[in-house]
Amino acid sequence: MKPARTVTHIEVPYTWSNVINGEWVAELLQARLDEWCPKLFGYHMLKLGGLSAELTSSHCNIQHQISVDRLSPKRTIVADALELPFIEKSFDACLLMHQLDYAVDPHGLLREIDRVMVDDGYLVLSGNNPLSLLGLRGLLPWNRHQAPWTGKMYLPFRINDWLRLLNYEVVYQETFAIVPATRHLACAAWFEHVLSEPLSAVGSLYFIVARKRTCPLKLIKPTWKLRRQLAPLRINCRTQVEKTCTKTPPRS
C-alpha cells in the first residue's frame, strides 16, 4: 500500500466546475447532505475547502458556518487547511467534501480537524473510490492531468482506519454512483437502481459520517470501600487486685 503523504504538488479544485462531471457529483452529495444536516446540532460549523463551501447546508440547525479556502469565492476565511487559525475544540461539525483526495498530508489534515473539533462532534466527508469505474478511468493517459484523477483516491475502509485511530466512530457510510454520469441520465439512474445492491462496494463515490468519541484518560475508581480489618479495642483491663494495690495505705 502506497503511503498517503506525498511531496509532489497537487492542484486542488476550488469549484465543482473544475472537476469532470463535478455538477453531477455535487447533486448526489447535496442529496445526502440534506438528509444529514437536520441531525447536526451545535453552535459552529466548519466547511473546509471550496468544494465544501459550494454545497448548501441551510437545513442545518447550526447557524454559524465558516468556509475556509484559498481561492474559492464563497470562502469567509483565507487559511491553510493544515494550519487552521482556530483554538482547540471550536466547531461542532465539519464538512470535508473531496478534500482528502487532494491533500498532500491527509493524516495531518485529519489531525488538524480533530484538534478544532469538540467532543462528540460530527465529521462529514466524501471522496472518490479507486475501486470503481471512475478510478479505472484514471489509468488512461489523457485523464491523468484532469481532476479528479490528479489527486489520490483512497478506499473507504482505509479512511475508516484513519478515523478509528483518532477515536472516531463511523455512524453512517455509503458507496454509490456505480455508473458514471452520461448524457442519458435516465438510463444511468435505472442502472444505478438495479446495481446498487449487488455492486455497492464498487461505487465511484463514498459518503461517511463519523462522530468524535473521547475516552477518559483517568481511571474511574470504584465507589465501594474495603472492609476494615478487625482490631482489638483499647479498654481498661486492670483487675481488682491491681486496683487494691494501687490504693494508698491508711494513716497510722
TrEMBL record:
Name this protein carries in UniProt: SAM-dependent methyltransferase
Entry GO MF terms: S-adenosylmethionine-dependent methyltransferase activity
Ranges of residues in domain Methyltransferase type: 74-125
UniProt keyword annotation of Metal-binding present: no
Gene3D superfamilies per UniProt: Vaccinia Virus protein VP39 (3.40.50.150)
InterPro entries tied to this protein: Methyltransf_11 (IPR013216), SAM-dependent_MTases_sf (IPR029063)
Methyltransferase keyword on record: yes
